[in-house]
Amino acid sequence: MTGTVSDTWRLDHPWAHVYSFGMGHPALARTAGVVGFGTSFDGLYDAIDSLAHVPAGGTVLDVPCGSGIALRGVDPAAGLRYLACDISPAMLRRTRRAAERRGIAIETLEGDVADLPLEDRSVDLTLSLTGLHCFPDPGAAVREIARVTADRIELTWLRSDAGLRYRPILVAGRAGGLVGPSATVLEVTGWLRAAGFVSYAVTEGAFAYLSARRP
Ligand SMILES: C[S@@+](CC[C@H](N)C(=O)[O-])C[C@H]1O[C@@H](n2cnc3c(N)ncnc32)[C@H](O)[C@@H]1O
Q: Residue 130: CB within 6 Å of ligand 1?
């Protein structure tokens, strides 16, 4: 399912350029994160680094891939099958360019996180970084990610339960059409539990960093 927020991203809103540039420069992203969101994004970069633990030849799904920032965690020699999915053709072009620069073979999927063209449990690790708050239906997204994932899920998002201090960010993001309903940590862990995953979540400022595995 898509709605206003995904449509805004699909049309490559100017914020997508600013965001892609910022996240591609970790020092800048960390500074902006601390000032604006109360987080250094360590949890996001840790999730990217955890790509090193996927066994050689394993399958990774990066949804939404955005401009391909997670590719920095991929060893081109690891022989991973790397599936990069996003609803925005412009973002997919950025990811393809990033993969070329790094010499990494990837497959790209233009599509909706809530309707992935993948078999059940066909992916070893799914990364969904700064994604849930950009989807119109985070619950549908989490259930679909869980359906296709055999082992581990890493989620990073601007949570809806961050309190009054960060409320203006959610309100402004929603007004700009870039942020959807988002979700609380309890909601996301509940959706994952119902799908057979055990989760461990950490919150820092406005963000949540969650790692989930099938027991
Ligand atoms: C804030 S960016 C995050 C991108 C990347 N994971 C990162 O951390 O840089 C949000 C991304 O979600 C994508 N997106 C929005 N709605 C989507 C949907 N329904 N299905 C797949 N991707 C979607 C946007 O195009 C955008 O690339």
A: yes
Q: Give me the helix-helix angle, 14-23 and 89-102, nearest 10°.
A: 20
User: At what angle are helices 138-148 and 185-194 packed, to 10 degrees?
Assistant: 40
- Judge if pTM exceeds 0.90: yes
4-213 CATH choice from 3.40.50.300, 2.60.40.10, 3.40.50.150, 3.30.70.100: 3.40.50.150
Q: Which sequence spans correspond to the domains of the chain?
A: 4-213
> What is the 8-class DSSP label of residue 163?
-
Asked if residue 91 has its Cβ within 6 Å of ligand 1, the reply is yes
Counting ligand 1 atoms within 8 A of each CB, the residue from 1, 8, 9 with the most, and so the one to mutate, is: 9
pLDDT in tens, 104-135: 999 999 999 999 999 999 999 999 999 999 99
